[in-house]
Write a structure and sequence with these properties.
304 residues; mainly alpha; three-stranded antiparallel sheet; 9 helices; 3 strands
């Protein structure tokens, strides 16, 4: 069996960085090839033309914004966090307790930040539409781009946490109550729930080309992770993100690709909502129900 998280005889960092540069170059090429800015501007009005009253959509977006802001403040002000990380020097797992801004290095926290940023811009844009003011084009483009990025990241995060991370904790019989604190609930569960409801409530018309934003997010996170570990805090939040791994170029490409794949699945879901609201509603409810978890499956008496 191939050990995807194993180290080879040589450091794969150069190959990893070249791979990320190629992905970035191709993504930017298609941005211009497909006239991405025009696609974003064309999509913007559909975020504010739902069959539901726009005031209701505005209230919903303000609610999500408030919850996201509360989670960010709660996360920052917590005395300490708990993370099992990979040490850059020893290449082994170790326990660390991040404080303040250091807690925002996980991909889950980036999911929360993208969710918050979307609802912030969406709330501003919706208010401008309600008062019949023209939104600047950068707000129009930014809202659609953030939505496309946030939904792919949120559904990927929920899926990995629900199907990989939490079962792994249970298998090791390790206490993981921290995974169900308020801010983690928002990152791992409610980010996906809020954005699924956003699809149903706003019924936006998005394009498959917007999957490119997921690729960029994955590349940016991978590029950020290496200097963070090598020159700053000395650890990787996830083992697969270490560019020195033998199969690191494949793994890092996989992260970027996975965000885009989840986006495309949600694009299809949004198309189904437009075609038949009831079927789209059932699909999204079923999907979300399979990727969220609100409490530990490990009984207290079974913990080591």
């Amino acid at each position: 069996m191939v050990d995807l998280l194993g180290y080879g005889e040589k450091d794969s960092t150069p190959q990893s960085l070249i791979t990320l540069a190629l992905i970035t170059g191709l993504t930017l090429f298609f941005f211009f090839q497909w006239d991405m800015n025009s696609l974003l501007i064309e999509s913007f009005p559909t975020f504010h033309s739902s069959t539901f009253p726009l005031v209701l959509v505005f209230i919903w977006r303000l609610f999500c914004l408030a919850v996201g802001a509360s989670a960010l403040v709660f996360m920052y002000r917590m005395e300490t966090g708990t993370m099992i990380v990979i040490d850059h020097e020893t290449r082994k797992e170790r326990l660390t307790h991040p404080v303040k801004s250091e807690k925002f290095v996980t991909f889950s926290s980036w999911t929360l930040l993208s969710n918050f940023a979307y609802f912030l811009i969406a709330s501003i844009a919706t208010y401008m539409v309600l008062v019949e003011r023209s939104a600047p084009q950068w707000i129009e483009a930014f809202q659609v781009a953030l939505f496309s990025t946030a939904i792919g990241a949120a559904f990927l995060t929920s899926t990995v946490v629900r199907l990989v991370i939490l079962p792994g904790e249970v298998q090791q019989r390790r206490n993981h109550d921290h995974q169900f604190l308020f801010h983690n609930q928002i990152m791992h569960n409610f980010a996906a729930i809020f954005l699924a409801i956003e699809i149903l409530l706003a019924q936006p018309q998005i394009q498959p080309e917007f999957a490119l934003f997921g690729l960029l997010l994955g590349v940016v996170y991978a590029v950020f992770a290496y200097p963070f570990a090598a020159f700053w805090k000395g650890y990787y939040v996830y083992g697969f993100i270490d560019p020195r791994l033998k199969y690191a170029p494949l793994l890092q490409s996989g992260l970027a690709g996975a965000i885009s794949v989840f986006y495309l699945g949600l694009w299809l879901g949004s198309e189904l909502v437009s075609y038949n609201f009831l079927l789209g509603f059932l699909l999204l409810v079923l999907w979300v129900s399979q990727i969220v978890q609100f409490k530990s499956a490990l009984p207290k008496e079974s913990e080591l």
